[in-house]
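Consider the tokenized backbone below.
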């Protein structure tokens, strides 16, 4: 090893020791911040000196001016609310809202608001969906339609009403979201380490599907993985088996066999379908999310199981 390499290694070890001496974990998995970049700038206001803040993000520029350092931090914060209801005969409704605020290196914030809803029938393999994407409260993109077997199940037919009326043909072996989640649980229970599927959920203007490849980690038995103590109904998850799962979403096509995924999801997947420790990697940036609140809803009944309506006399 050269003298220069030895010098660099020695300097890095000294910095590592300095962090540890201050009680700072240099490779911490979790960092508690007090503000995002936008609220930190707002807290300063017109004052020359503002409150002490802890921010986390990507440093996109760094300028040292003597004892003063100027840095631009780009970051993202947000909240996802997800609701799923279902019946005992395999009908599932999903509603999701995912709001994020991204602050760029100039300190300008953009709010993205994704709203989706869907209804899926497992027995008939049909999906109805609606999706709207807002940017700074202005509608940027919308899709709406339905999907199901076409021409005797030889392909999957998508009928779009938004953004324009159109019919799209997809492969016959398409999985819809709930069907895909159930298949993941079955694969994990069977001890499989991989699961591949063509997945369609109506996103991206409703015209495309993704080739997905899931890697399933070792099973964690009930009680071996603990959710944060502040999570409502967290004790029910602690008593449920789970698996770490990572899914890559790829553009379809034989010429893209060695291509990188468009994006990747990783999360802890519980046997009852609940997820935690979400991590979304888009390549240029990544988002980490943690479960904060969980409410279990009662399963609905099929029409055949519902009590008869009262007879008016």
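A designed sequence for it:
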């Amino acid at each position: 090893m050269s003298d220069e390499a030895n010098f660099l290694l020695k300097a890095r070890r000294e910095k590592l020791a300095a962090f540890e001496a201050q009680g700072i974990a240099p490779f911490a998995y979790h960092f508690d911040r007090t503000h995002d970049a936008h609220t930190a700038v707002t807290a300063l206001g017109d004052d020359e000196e503002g409150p002490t803040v802890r921010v986390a993000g990507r440093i996109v520029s760094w300028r040292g001016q003597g004892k003063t350092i100027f840095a631009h931090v780009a970051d993202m914060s947000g909240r996802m609310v997800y609701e799923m209801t279902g019946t005992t005969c395999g009908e599932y409704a999903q509603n999701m809202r995912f709001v994020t605020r991204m602050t760029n290196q100039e300190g300008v914030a953009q709010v993205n608001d994704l709203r989706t809803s869907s209804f899926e029938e497992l027995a008939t393999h049909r999906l109805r969906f609606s999706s709207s994407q807002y940017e700074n409260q202005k509608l940027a993109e919308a899709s709406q339609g339905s999907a199901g077997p076409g021409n005797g199940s030889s392909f999957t037919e998508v009928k779009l009403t938004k953004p324009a009326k159109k019919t799209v043909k997809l492969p016959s072996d398409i999985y819809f979201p709930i069907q895909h989640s159930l298949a993941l649980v079955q694969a994990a229970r069977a001890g499989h380490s991989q699961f591949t599927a063509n997945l369609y959920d109506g996103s991206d203007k409703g015209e495309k599907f993704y080739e997905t490849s899931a890697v399933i980690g070792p099973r964690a038995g009930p009680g071996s993985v603990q959710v944060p103590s502040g999570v409502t109904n967290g004790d029910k998850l602690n008593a449920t088996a789970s698996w770490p799962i990572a899914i890559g979403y790829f553009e379809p096509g034989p010429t893209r066999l060695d291509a990188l995924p468009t994006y990747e999801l990783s999360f802890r997947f519980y046997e009852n379908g609940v997820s935690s420790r979400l991590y979304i990697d888009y390549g240029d940036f990544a988002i980490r999310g943690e479960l904060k609140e969980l409410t279990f809803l009662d399963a609905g009944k099929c029409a055949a199981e519902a009590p008869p309506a009262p007879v008016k006399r």
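The radius of gyration is 24 Å.
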